[in-house]
Amino acid sequence: MTSAATSRLHLPDARDTAPISAVRARAYKIPTDAPEADGTFEWTSTTLVVVDIEADGCSGLGYTYTDASATALIRDTLAPVLLHEHAGSLAALTQRLWRRVRNIGRSGLCANAISALDFALWDLNAKLLGVPLVRLIGGPLRERVPIYGSGGFTSYDDATLRDQLAHWVDVDGCTAVKMKIGADPARDPQRVQAARSAIGDAALFVDANGALTVNGALQCAERFVDQGVVWFEEPVSSDDLAGMRIVRDAAPPTMDIAAGEYAYTGDDFRRMLEAQAVDVLQADATRCGGVTGFMQAAQLCDAWHIPLSAHCAPALHRHLAAAAPRLRHIEWFHDHVRIESMLFDGAPKAEHGTIAPDLARPGCGLEFKRADAGPYAL
User: Fold this and answer.
1) For a Cys staple, 116 with which of 64, 77, 80, 350, CB 3.0–4.6 Å?
2) How far is it, in rounded angstroms, from Cα 124 to Cα 332?
3) Per-state percent for the chain, helix, strand, coil, to nearest 5
4) How much of the chain exceeds pLDDT 90, in percent?
5) Is a pLDDT exceeding 70 seen at residue 7?
6) What pLDDT shows up at residue 134?
7) Which of 110, 132, 154 is the last residue of a domain?
8) Where are the beta strands (DSSP E) in 56-118?
């Protein structure tokens, strides 16, 4: 599927005479500030892969959170597709990237790598035109975008959980927060109660990361509804669309079922919507094809009358979220907020539970702090 925004905006201009002269990728491994875990995984570091694409004296920035092996894939397999091509041929270049990985497999690592490259191409084009990215994709539809605090890892004790969630409400002004569940379902009701005691009347979200069975998820939904839980993310694996649909049909009507962070292509989003598996679709531009893929997901949500939520990477998503119809919010994820504030000049700061694209800067409004990132380079 070709982005309508891409087709509409590909007009003859200086970008058609701006051949791509360089494509670079570097991986950085940043330790977490404490051990973290969810319903299915434990980790102590996050790997960031940063991409630069140069043309006509400008450099476009993109990034993804994935394995460091994506750098070799970008350097050896994907960069040759872009080199010496005109930067303004956005739709054609993106299509060539996806075709190049046909026999490798689109999902997972390839989609993450293409996502970073696609975002860098859009950032480069916006800079060549001297406009903020949100203008290039047809926005903004909104000046500021709501965020919800996200973390609440299963590795936290109750005091740490309460402190983190309360900070998002009391300091960042978030009206909703999300916590992880599923590692120890028997203990989760107590953890949910602790969270509720910390956030007052704010909306409470839970995320099982696909750890539960259908029956287990429905039991959790019954227990949590009395604590005002209004969002249940990936109660079962998002690969199990039939199971997701069962949970959605049987969950309390006040509780939205959400998923989509592991959708890598427009086909993945389409299948999820056709299965009527979610009340809210999540999309992650660092996984689903960058700007092009995220805006495709936004168009699908608009056609299906389903709300869209941006998953993680808030500094990267803020321009896209400001231009996406039916956008509900961006996930203000603890790890990514910390990394982006450390390593990117221009990273957003929460104000009254919202963030905004910087309309005074061209492109995505971010500059990578290479010197600061140096100690984490792989």
Assistant:
1) 64
2) 25
3) 40, 25, 35
4) 96
5) no
6) 98
7) 132
8) 58-65
Kindly indicate the confidence band of residue 229, based on its pLDDT and cuts at 50, 70 and 90.
very high
With the C-alpha atoms ordered 230, 236, 239, 244, is the resulting torsion angle positive or negative? negative
Judge whether residue 100 has pLDDT over 80.
yes
| Per-residue pLDDT tens over the stretch 209-223 | 999 999 999 999 999
Cα–Cα distance for residue pair 239/317, rounded to 1 Å: 24
- Alpha carbon 289 to its chain centroid, in Å, reads 11
Mean pLDDT, the chain, integer: 95
Residue closest to 14 by CA, chosen among 133, 126, 139, 136 = 126
Torsion-angle region of 117 (φ positive above 0: left; ψ -120 to 50: alpha; else: beta): alpha
Q: Give the C-alpha separation, 134 to 19, whole Å.
A: 23
Range of the domain at 78: 4-132
What is the structure's pLDDT at 13? 64
254 plus 205 within the same structural domain: yes
Q: Which two tokens stand for residue 182?
A: 């599923």
Kindly report the pTM of this predicted structure: 0.94
Q: What distance in Å separates the CA atoms of residue 287 and residue 45, rounded to the nearest whole number?
A: 19
Q: Fill in the amino acid letter for 150.
A: S
Q: How many CA atoms lie within 13 A of 311 on its CB side?
A: 26
In this structure, the answer to whether residues 254 and 318 fall within a common structural domain is yes
Residue with tokens 């996984």: 287
Rounded to 5 degrees, φ, ψ at 150 are -140, 130
Q: Are residues 123 and 201 in the same domain?
A: no
pLDDT at 12 (0 to 100): 55
Distances (CA, A) of 289 to 141, 180, 266: 22, 26, 9
CA distances (Å), origin 257, targets 309, 319, 332: 12, 25, 19
Domain count, the chain: 2
SS3 263: coil
Phi/psi for 314 (5° steps) reads -65, -35
